[in-house]
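for ur thesis appendix - hydroxymethylpyrimidine kinase. copy paste whatever u need, i formatted it the way the template wanted (i think)
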Amino acid sequence: MNSLPCVLTIAGSDSGGGAGIQADLKTMSIMGCYGASAITALTAQNTVTVSGIEPVSPEFVALQIETVCADINIKAAKTGMLFSAPIIRSVAAALVDKSFPLIVDPVCVASSGARLLKEDAVEAMKELFPLADLLTPNVPEAELFADMEIKTREDIFKAIDILLEMGPKAVLIKGGHFDSVASTDWLGIKGEKPIPMMQQRVKTRNMHGTGCTLSAAIASGMAKGKNLVTAILDAQKYLNLALRAGFEVGEGGGPPNHLAPMLITGMKEGLLSDLHECGLRLTHMDGLSNLIPESRMNVAAALPHATEINDVAAFTGRITCTRKGEIIIGGHPDFGASSFMAKAVLCARKYNPEINCAVGIRYNDQIMAAVAKCGFVEAWFDLADKPKDLNIEVGSSLEWGTCEALAHHDDATKVDVVCDPGEIGIEPIVRVLGKDFQDLEAKLKLLIAVLKK
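the 3d part is after this line
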């Protein structure tokens, strides 16, 4: 087996396991790297508080770094909690002749509010900045080191310029503290216009160790030979997924789920198997042929943390029927197989996260009467109302329409079907939403039963 690129983390230990050395090593492993460490301090902490800090002597911190680098081929390194001025200066001295990229995460305060950097260490930290290939402060940290308040985009640009003058090759001001729909990190490189790097904001309180995780992921990407921008984008994507998959471990805010990519791989295999089984049941569902549209039918099912088309599985060849009513499933379950249905499911999830699957059925007077008789809650959109400047990307009209229907509904969490009367050249369709395959199949069976009567 080929060796893994080695990444060194120089940071404090988090006894709660969510940040610091522990978060770094988990991240490096899942990103396909080998993690080595130099511990700067021990902390006694959980999800609620930091009850104690025991720093390591500056000499021993330096000895850890020197010993690791003397034997292991380090491809990238990152710093986290450095705690005191003497430790910071010992780290800087140990890294002065480094031959690998260094990410400096200027950790000052824990998520619980406990200060992790002594007052006299702020100026000393600036002495480390010239060694940094990338500096990754959050907004409060950027305000502290730039000695200014950051409220606007212009403030961010000014802070980036001030920080770049302190010596780092690049600065990434993280946008998690801003009150905005999206979370935007700003990358500043000397002589270039700052680059906005946007990610969908995740509503969660499990954010302990996000800065450590991001910087460790960036360092891992650079250790694998990625350029800075690609390493940051990949790290953002990983952190976003880990946040969406976060979980409670105590009474306070928990950490991101560092194993999310591995768990998602297992979930994908399970979902494809479940969709295959659903298809088998549909082939034996008496009367289903009456619901199949002229353009055929497809079932789409999303992963629990789906955000893009490739997170949603469907049949590659759709579902059709013979004139005798025999159900035929074309192709096989696969992710990204139907951009139309994937976009419908993803839009529905924005308004009701419990929705995980959907199926498109025929639209006619009899079926709409059955929908009403079943007591299904309807949401409607009309393609005639779509914006004239709507892009022509596949499924964009359905994406707009589903969001439009649910956004204007009194209670989108109660919607069972999204109805589309179509337009010239486009068949009208009813999209049935389900929390899972069982819920979806139950709705189809109920419709069929009402139609038979």
